[in-house]
Amino acid sequence: MAIQKIDHPMIDFGLQSKESGKQINEANKYLPGGVTANIKYFEPYPLVMDKGEGARLRDVDGNWYVDYLMGFGSLALGHGNKQVIQAINDQFLKNGTLLFGTPHQLEIEFAKKIQQIYPSMEKMRYTNSGTEATQLAIRLAQVFTGKKRIAKFEGHYHGGYKEMLYSINPPLTESGDEETPNPVPESAGVEVDGSEPIILPFNHLNGVEKLLQKHYKELAAVVIEPIQAGFIEAEQEFMDKLRELTERYHVLLIYDEVKTGFRSALGGAQSIYQVTPDITTLGKVIGAGFPIGLVGGRREILEVSSPKRGTDVFEAGSQGNGSAKDVLFHSGTYNGHPTILAAGLATIVELERSFEQILLYTNELRSGIEKIGRKAGLPLKTYGVGSIFNVVCNQETNLRHYRDLQKTNTKLRKQLDFELMKQGIYTKPLNRYSISSAHGKAELLITLNAYEKACHHLKGGAGVS
Ligand SMILES: Cc1ncc(COP(=O)(O)O)c(C=O)c1O
């Protein structure tokens, strides 16, 4: 095999994506980096899309792609799903408004549906994003336990805010011992000053036990992505023991299922591990492409946000029975937005029908990719659960946590991503693959065909280490 090192794995986008380049330059005059969220950025410039249809996306140069980003996993039914569009129209026609600013029936209907599928969510509150959901979960845990600090796992992401922007993708040179990782700031303005989260090692019982034993008196909660980054599974024993330890030390267990909810399984990772967390956060899929978040959990925990407990900043509570400090104030003009709940409910109902079909597609795609990799002599392995997975370039037999991921060949993976993009397959470089009910036989064939070509190209020209 010809081995040729390529330092910059990006393709020359020039011909194929001239208009995208132009528009990103224009955007850069108004938006830092030309983007509205850092996650949308990649080098040399991100593609600008202008149309979605089913499982496909079209860029501003007129190139069509089979889309595996699916709005970072949000679009479980693909782009422009008919039932979702119908639900949006029906909501407006029936209700005559996009926003009541008052309680309304869909808030109850949606909550009932969620509770059927996620029985651990005895009571819940709507938010406007996954970020807001995990923020609220943390505040609930702090108020309920009377403790301040939070523990999170190395390599796990819970949204873009100061308290949790630590050790998401830290350089191994800074991350310290595997059993007791260092907190590594992941943003300007974030510091290690004693209030940062305790960083726990994923799938590492000894380390977790040691750290909980040491810090439990100050810990309000342990927050976890039960399947790391949506594709690295926790071991069953680890999840069972984590539940046992958090109970023993009176530390709340928060499952952040923003990625895994309705994707790892309809009932999320908690239905797979058969673990009941104290608090769960959901987002992405349940909004059908609209912004949403949801926090639910044990009744007595969620009740700390009930305005019936006292007064609040807007004097909404029962006067005289307590003060503002007796209530965890949670609000938001758009919480429980009727259009979003209608679209989300239609998505959940449709997913209950089509989830098995999505899993079949996912499994066929995963085994097809691995087979093509083997044939081409490239170390492609897929990791994931349910309708999300990732393609990892490594020879390791088992990827268990963040540090294993660091040993994989991300350069080769990026080369593959850009080759695939040239062949009409889109995901953001290095990102997960999220499958929707709109992916069918045609997309499977196109994708595997593109993989054949991309692997053939890389085998001939790329550095494989
Ligand atoms: C596990 C997890 N938690 C929280 C978030 C933040 O959600 P949002 O981007 O909706 O704010 C994300 C987003 O990717 C996530 O994957």
Question: How would you describe this structure to a colleague?
Answer:
There is one protein chain. With 465 residues, the protein is of the alpha/beta class. The chain is 36% helix and 14% strand. The chain has 13 helices and 16 strands. The chain has helices at residues 18-27, 70-73, 82-95, 105-117, 130-145, 205-215, 236-248, 268-273, 299-302, 338-376, 402-406, 410-422, 441-461, and strands spanning 49-53, 56-59, 64-67, 123-127, 149-153, 198-200, 219-224, 227-228, 232-233, 252-256, 279-283, 293-297, 380-385, 388-393, 425-426, 433-434. Strands 4-12-11-10-7-5-6 form a seven-stranded mixed beta sheet, with helices on both faces. A four-stranded mixed beta sheet has the order 1-2-3-15. The protein has a three-stranded antiparallel beta sheet with strand order 13-14-16. β2 (56-59) and β3 (64-67) form a beta hairpin. The longest helix is centred in the C-terminal third of the chain and has 39 residues, at 338-376. Bound molecules: pyridoxal-5'-phosphate.
Please tag this protein with its features.
single chain, 465 residues, alpha/beta, Aspartate Aminotransferase, domain 1, Aspartate Aminotransferase, domain 2, 2 domains, 13 helices, 16 strands, 36% helix, 14% strand
